[in-house]
Amino acid sequence: MARRAALVLTAALLASSALTACSTEGPASGSSSGATKGSDGTITLGFAQVGAESGWRTANTKSVQEAAKKAGITLKFSDAQQKQENQIKAIRNFIQQKVDVIAFSPVVESGWDTVLKEAKDAGIPVILTDRAVDAKDTSLYKTFLGSDFVKEGKSAGEWLTSAYANEQGPVNIVELQGTTGSAPANDRKAGFADVIRTDGKFKIVASQSGDFTRAKGKEVMQAFLKSQKDIDVLYAHNDDMALGAIQAIEESGKKPGTDIKVISVDGIKDAFVAMTEGKINVVVECNPLLGDQLMELTKKVAAGENVPTRVETQEGVFPQDKAAAALPSRNY
Fold first, then answer.
1. How far is CA 202 from CA 62, 162, 188, 268, in A?
2. Other Cβ atoms within 10 Å of 308 Cβ, number
3. What is the mean pLDDT of residues 19-48?
């Protein structure tokens, strides 16, 4: 009898131990409640970055990392190296890790519906940062934090039409586009075209992607200079491509900012330096310092609060004559 009682007691202790171990696990992967916060109440944010293709992107990453630390949010960071498949893999990893919130800056606009549906089914809210997606089901993400890229393109076009208001034309423009299929490339092109098409003297004679990088911007500009006899204006979708193109223009014996007017978008410090040197004529600002706003939104969606579906950043336009005064305050 004593032996039997001992066996029963041992079995009871093992069952109790198993139940205790199970109670420390998070919700099952199929649970609709999604992830739970850490035992200390901290929020875990999974952030899938595009890459490190430009000075702007580097500043954006730093802003997110510093803001997370300041806000007491645990950040799981992934660099997609400008490949959509890497971002999708990162998002799926975040889902498996049961993070509280997922945020990402999409490499391109399309192809996200399946993975976003997986996040929604897991009960994990998603925030889009900097770039939008073209998903028809807008319930797949909670909000989009970023710039109005169409507006940026229009601002670039408005500066150009004003600068050439008294010129007879023609005005031949070459365009350095961003990464093919990305929201900023699509929208900055569309906004610019909407403005300049109102005056027939403006003509885009060549347009090609420079992938938002300085090296590619230089390479494509070299090709433009060889294929186009007369170039009056360069419109670059970001500063890094513009700075690479400036190297190509100078190596060809022409003077950037004078022989070829240069319009750029972003507002990194190197571009403002180039403006003070007369090499860029105007920069349309795109603010990368989204970290604090992202952490504020992360806390709200993690708590189940309603947030606006669109949160826009505040930005300006800086012509050459304002560059010197603005340069000391550039933080990126």
1. 39, 12, 17, 27
2. 11
3. 51
Q: What is the DSSP string of 161-180?
A: HHHTTT--S-EEEEEEE-ST
| pTM (whole model) above 0.85 | no
Paired tokens of 257: 């900012």
CA distance linking residue 42 with residue 228, whole number of Å:
57
Rounded to 5 degrees, φ, ψ at 255 are: -110, 110
What is the C-alpha to C-alpha distance for residues 285 and 314, in angstroms, rounded to an integer?
Answer: 9
What rounded mean pLDDT belongs to the chain? 89
Within 10 Å of residue 25's Cβ, how many Cβ atoms?
A: 8
Q: Please report, for the chain, how many H helices and E strands are present, in that order.
A: 11, 12
How would you classify the pairing of strands 282-285 and 317-319? Answer: antiparallel
Q: pLDDT, tens digit, for every residue of 228-284?
A: 999 999 999 999 999 999 999 999 999 999 999 999 999 999 999 999 999 999 999
